[in-house]
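All the exercises in this workshop are built on plain-text protein records. A learned vocabulary of local backbone shapes supplies the integers on the structure line. Once this layout is familiar, the rest of the handout is easier to follow. An example says more than a description, so a record of this kind follows:
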Amino acid sequence: MPEHRIKVAFLLPHFRPGGAERVVLNWLGALDRSRFDPHLLLGRVEGDFLDLLPRDVEPLRIGANRALWRSFDIGRQLDALGIDVAYSATNAMNLALMAAPARNCARIVSEHTTPTAYLAGAKWPWLRKAAMRLLYPSATAVAVPTQAIAAELNALMRRELPIRCLPNPVIDDWASQTCVHPSAAVRTGPWQIVSAGRLVREKGFDLLIAAVGKLARHDRPCQLTIYGEGPERAKLEARIVAEGLNDHVRLAGHVADPGAAMAGADLFVLASRREGFGNVLIEAMHQGLPVLATRCGGPDSFISDGDNGWLVPTGDAQVLAARIEELLADPARLTSTVGAGRATAAQYGIQRSTRMFEKMLVGLARR
């Protein structure tokens, strides 16, 4: 083993299931331990993903609860651990890292959604924008999953940032898939629709439930299963009851492997109002599921309508219901995208992404 392994710190607010958290979890598991020594620093040591951490990674709590002091605690911890490269995710943690008074370690901030979409729902957007313009240009690198996010960041900053576009680590490169889509056979029961994600308004599950309600009222036999947890659960449950959809919609909760849980369904639907990328779409495509997504940012970057999946405008339950009905009524057309979808998913392998990330870490640590 080399005398010095590169010490890498990942900074997140928590480790609850989410896109940025999944990226960090998969990198933590795949980093070459002969060359890298990973650490995980969390604002709150909580979340279901903690149970999936590699045994050699102990989550450490960032000392301060108050944002005003968080940067100072981050600086102290980075110095105490001797970190060579620090990587942060989420806008608040990015700003805290960049403001931290630490030694000369390389700093990578990451953005997993477009700044326009994020700032539209953020508190004090003008203050966030000003802080980003002040601090982001000093980052050693800015990591993003898509060129669309990169372009928006550069426009917001009014300058070229040191951006690195890295594919998200989503699927196991070595896992073989032999899933045969059920629509290839004669369907004898209700159509099975699946979705997954954190139960928050941005994910548009209320729109998807409304769309399934429209299908049910038109005597279109279908069942929707939603995997995930979040603060909107009670509100979604109430909507299901109010619309009489108890027999048509099920909130199945969090699962460790959403890809495997979804296998065998007829269609995966993502109805998000905004989405930085959409890891769960890649997981569904890898499982051989046809995917239908809204044009909410991330999915537009890797889905070509009618080629490797399907796209509809965001925010319209009526349009969503019509497209779902149209696709499920034509199984041959629906499954025509499966092969191209699997080819797309193959570009987001965990090992491939990790090797690219490692190459970046080595370059930044040397600088």
Q: What stands out?
A: Residues 6-169+349-366 form a domain with the Rossmann fold fold (CATH 3.40.50.2000). The radius of gyration is 21 Å.
